[in-house]
Write a structure and sequence with these properties.
The protein is of the alpha/beta class. 32% of the residues lie in helices and 23% in strands. It has a four-stranded mixed β-sheet, with helices on one face. Strands 5-8-7-6 form a four-stranded mixed β-sheet, with helices on one face. This is Bleomycin resistance protein. Pfam families: Glyoxalase_7, Glyoxalase_8.
Length: 176
């Protein structure tokens, strides 16, 4: 990706190239020309929109992955895979008769489900911003799940479609 520092280098190269051809331009004019060539109104606009390179490492975060407690693998698969439409990303057990740690995902949303004591507390709530909440509602209602038929609730700030898993956890799908 082009950074502000690279754009400055482009302006410097442009100025040097023009000087070789006896075309004198100031540094500020060269910056303005590069900004225009990159599709910006002017250099100030380019400076606000182009990323800055950093020589100092910065702390960055990826998106969080909530861990929800589960107690019954079959019920978890019925709810999360069959009803909500998630797919298994991975499964882990230290041994065949030990608790399951399950990674699931759907359309960019990742959740981890754990039978391990201490990984998570039952009764957690996950807030999931999303788009096309009506499509999700229609999909879920069409499955005629025996333990829940969620509806959209209009809030002052947007719409909420809340589902409750068999272990007391809530997922609030929300659209502004």
């Amino acid at each position: 990706m082009l950074s502000i520092e690279k754009a400055k280098q482009m302006a410097k190269s442009l100025r040097a190239s023009l000087q070789e051809r006896n075309q004198e331009v100031s540094h500020s004019i060269a910056l303005e020309l590069v900004a225009l060539q990159l599709g910006y109104k002017d250099w100030n606009t380019a400076c606000t929109r182009l990323p800055h390179e950093s020589t100092v490492p910065a702390v960055t975060f990826d998106k969080p992955i909530p861990i929800l407690r589960m107690f019954d693998e079959a019920k978890a698969r019925e709810f999360y895979l069959d009803f909500l439409g998630f797919s298994v990303e991975f499964e882990h057990r230290f041994e065949a008769d030990l608790p399951l740690y399950l990674g699931i995902g759907r359309a960019g949303l990742q959740l981890h489900l754990s039978e391990h004591h201490g990984d998570a507390s039952p009764g957690s709530t996950v807030f999931v911003p999303m788009h096309n909440i009506q499509l999700l509602r229609d999909e879920l209602l069409g499955k005629r799940y025996g333990y829940g038929r969620p509806e959209i609730v209009q809030q002052g700030w947007g719409q909420v479609l809340e589902v409750h898993d068999p272990f007391g956890n809530r997922i609030r799908f929300c659209q502004s």
